[in-house]
Design brief:
With 135 residues, the protein is of the alpha/beta class. The chain is built from six helices and five strands; from the N terminus they run H-E-H-E-H-E-H-E-E-H-H.
């Protein structure tokens, strides 16, 4: 268990300034990855509470409002949330996000930003266009 907790803390690159969402119930084994590496590195654990907004349109602002820097989400929820983020980026900011699976095996957990016929000026604007765009 000690080796797992240290490895998880390393993989997540946790630091004392991180705020980690405990999304899973304490009765679910994934909570071990949320709780113990967080405590090991001196980060702050933010427990999930009954009123946590789960709709993608409310979840992203909630993460930002609470300063969450790490959230380990169940894959089913992550896929719904990532699709909503990609939709919002396209509709609100004109930025196309492609699911990582488009780029091959092992890329399913990534969202890629695509550039097509974009000049350097347009690419340089991406950070500004992404700001505040999460649903």
């Amino acid at each position: 268990m000690a080796n797992f907790v240290r490895s998880a803390a390393d993989v997540l690159a946790l630091a004392p300034g991180d705020r980690v969402l405990q999304f899973c119930s304490i009765g679910f084994d994934v909570s071990v990855m949320e709780v113990f590496p967080t405590l090991l590195r001196g980060a702050t654990l933010i427990p999930r509470y009954p009123g946590l907004p789960l709709a993608a349109s409310a979840f992203s602002p909630w993460l930002e409002e609470h300063g969450i820097s790490v959230a380990i989400l169940p894959s089913g929820y992550w896929h719904v949330w990532a699709a909503e983020v990609a939709r919002a980026l396209a509709e609100q900011r004109g930025v196309l996000g492609l699911p990582g699976s488009y780029f091959g095996d092992g890329q399913e957990t990534h969202l890629r930003i695509a550039f097509a016929n974009a000049g350097l000026e347009a690419i340089a604007e991406i950070p500004t266009r992404l700001q505040g765009a999460l649903p």
